[in-house]
From TrEMBL, chain A:
Membrane topology field: Multi-pass membrane protein
Annotated keywords: Cell membrane, Membrane, Transmembrane, Transmembrane helix
Pfam families documented for this protein: MrpF_PhaF
Bilayer-crossing regions: 34-51, 63-81, 93-112, 119-138
Protein name per the record: Multisubunit sodium/proton antiporter MrpF subunit
Keyword Transmembrane among record annotations: yes
UniProtKB/TrEMBL annotation, chain B:
Keywords assigned: Cell membrane, Membrane, Transmembrane, Transmembrane helix
Transmembrane regions: 6-23, 30-47, 53-72
Name of the protein this chain belongs to: MrpA C-terminal/MbhD domain-containing protein
Location of this chain's protein in the cell: Cell membrane
Pfam families linked to this entry: MbhD (PF13244)
Membrane topology reported for the UniProt record: Multi-pass membrane protein
Residue intervals of the MrpA C-terminal/MbhD domain: 11-77
Length: 144, 93, 301
């Protein structure tokens, strides 16, 4: 198994985790929907980062960058309309553990430079987005 | 390895699309649709078509949910007088 | 056109399409082979014009005219939505109540807003180098502005969003694309031909007209999405139909727009009398008209 295959195999981990999340979104209780939505963009962002490295195409990181910006935005839009924030420890800890576990090896693999700065930015955005949207005691606002 | 990723992404897309059809509540459909959008973006990336993946992400992750949710709110507000607010609006469509 | 006639038209068309499609399928290169006639030519043409992102070269150089059609479809779609979702005579505006937003969400949204705007502009500007381009970046930019709605409420968004500017921006983007095309004609080449110097491969100024066309599309898409979402937000948040709420007052009277609504709004209250829809907005004329529009779009494609 070559190195690029290793990165792609690593991308399989967040990808497979999306299966149960889909089940929760489609069939779970109302409270879990938003948690699921929040988790999906986080996992997709990680899978995209690993896939970019696996394909040896640093420019694919742009897709992950857009996910890291628009994913939390989507979650906040849902939060506004459903009047809840997804206060979930699962999302928070997945972000706090999963993002460094993904981004730091990628940084080591790419070496210092602009690509690494972009990776760190995506990682920071993914963590910030997940932690903020899973703030405890959240109240998404009453009316628009 | 790429083939495995593509197959998993295809399964996710098929599962999400089926779930979106089977759900009857528009808000939940919107959530499943968001998932479908992200799964499609992943699939496009694994097929090495990042331009298409970016288009899908840009449209599917925030703009489409916002438009659906705004429409649901408007329709529910209008039908609120006739049927009562609990009735999921647009169920017939 | 009767149902029978339409059915026959469809069957004849479908049969013709099936024959041509089957013939075309037999002419395709074998699936999974290493022989890519179009791909080889597209990559060569793209590298000749110093455009690192072959997709951008195909969209904005080789097939720039197709992209003009796509842009026009979006333009027409936004225009149609604006016409259908306008405020009619028997609808009135109410001031939405301010929303209560979790302070952490507000801080995050306000911090992400400039970053998201930057990401959108980055995607537009790097269309000729890396994945992305005018459409993708334009939608991200428009989404970024709506973080303000998430951070506080619709009134805050309205205060910083002069809708007229975005309506002009949408038209200007569409016009800029056509003007770039005619500039090539004036330079003695074909419509939308790539006549500018190509620059160095994989730099921001490479690709000749590709970055310019990307910028035009970005302007059009970003403005178009903002205008489109503004109509949806107006309908969902502000505009009320008669009998939608138990508040008193003559429902036929259009309220003066609030001063905070920005310069884009007053136009709606100046609509000519007598063009109001019946109470149910899905009345026969409204839906019939929209169906006609769809048909026309289909034919044009």
């Amino acid at each position: 198994m070559s190195t690029s295959d290793g990165w792609l195999a690593a991308a399989l981990v967040p990808l497979l985790a999306l299966g149960p999340v889909l089940w929760r979104i489609a069939h779970g209780p109302a409270k879990d929907r938003l948690v699921g939505q929040n988790l999906v963009s986080l996992l997709a962002g990680l899978a995209l980062l690993l896939a970019a490295q696996g394909f040896g195409r640093p420019s694919y990181t742009d897709v992950a960058l857009v996910v890291s910006v628009l994913g939390p935005t989507g979650t906040l839009i849902y939060a506004r309309f459903l009047d809840v924030l997804p206060d979930s420890r699962l999302v928070k800890w997945t972000a706090l553990i999963g993002v460094p576990a993904t981004v730091l090896p990628l940084c080591v693999a790419t070496g210092p430079g602009r690509a690494m700065a972009k990776l760190l930015l995506v990682g920071a955005l993914l963590i910030a987005g997940s932690v903020v949207t899973s703030a405890r005691g959240g109240d998404g606002g009453t009316t628009a | 390895m790429t083939d495995v990723l593509i197959v998993v992404a295809l399964l996710l897309v098929a599962g999400a699309a089926t779930a979106a059809v089977l759900n009857r509540d528009p808000v939940r459909q919107a959530l499943v649709l968001s998932f479908l959008g992200l799964a499609l973006a992943l699939l496009f990336t694994f097929l090495q078509a990042p331009d298409v993946a970016l288009s899908q992400l840009a449209v599917g992750s925030a703009v489409t949910p916002l438009m659906i949710l705004l429409t649901v709110r408007k329709v529910r507000r209008r039908s609120g007088n006739d049927h009562g607010a609990d009735e999921p609006a647009g169920r017939e469509r | 056109m009767s149902f029978r006639f339409r059915l026959w038209v469809f069957l004849v068309g479908a049969a013709g399409f099936a024959v041509l499609f089957a013939v075309a399928c037999f002419g395709l290169p074998a699936f999974g082979s290493g022989h890519h006639p179009y791909g080889v030519r597209a990559v060569r043409a793209s590298l000749n014009h110093h455009t690192a992102n072959v997709i951008a070269s195909v969209n904005f150089d080789l097939r720039a005219f197709d992209t003009l059609g796509e842009e026009t479809i979006l333009f027409a779609a936004v225009l149609g939505a604006v016409v259908l979702l306008r405020q009619t005579q028997d609808e009135r505006r109410k001031t939405p109540e301010p929303a209560v937003v979790h302070p952490r969400v507000r801080r995050f949204a306000l911090l992400t807003l400039p970053l998201a705007l930057l990401v959108g502009l980055y995607v537009i500007a790097h269309g000729q180098i890396s994945p992305g381009g005018g459409f993708q970046g334009g939608v991200v930019t428009a989404t970024a502005l709506h973080l303000l709605y998430v951070a506080s409420d619709y009134r805050a968004l309205e205060r910083v969003r002069p809708l007229t500017v975005y309506e002009i921006g949408e038209a200007a983007g569409e016009a800029a694309y056509v003007v770039t095309g005619f500039a090539a004609v004036l330079a003695g080449s074909a419509f939308l031909a790539n006549v500018l110097p190509f620059g160095t491969l994989a730099t921001l100024s490479s690709g000749g007209t590709v970055p310019l066309l990307n910028a035009a599309i970005g302007l059009e898409v970003a403005s178009g999405v903002v205008v489109l979402l503004a109509r949806f937000l107006d309908q969902a948040v502000e505009i009320e139909e008669p009998g939608e709420d138990e508040e008193s007052g003559d429902p036929r009277e259009i309220e003066k727009p609030r001063e905070s609504q920005g310069p884009g709004k007053p136009r709606e209250s100046e609509e000519p009398r007598g063009c109001g829809r019946p109470k149910e907005s899905e009345g026969p004329e409204a839906s019939g008209a929209s169906r006609d529009d769809d048909n026309r779009d289909d034919k044009r494609e």
